[in-house]
Amino acid sequence: MSTWMAVRHTCQDFDAWKPVFDRGLGLRQEHGAISEMVFRDGNDVMVLVEFPDAGSQESFQGDPRLRQDMQDAGVIGAPNVSGPWDRVS
Hints:
By secondary structure, the chain is an alpha+beta fold. It is built from four helices and four strands.
């Protein structure tokens, strides 16, 4: 059963953030990401990423390249990360 990670954060400029997020697809896939969804309210962003298991999510979350990508994307402050979430329907 796959698990989901939810990440919420604010960025300086969504239009500058999105290309950096898109460029990070390879990193997410390297850690086993299966799918993702992005939601926004202005510069507030929520990302849901599906992983095959909790270990894959933890590996991705601990990758220092993710931290650098978030800085490059203009994320303000620390992101709110939760999960793993198990999908039930």
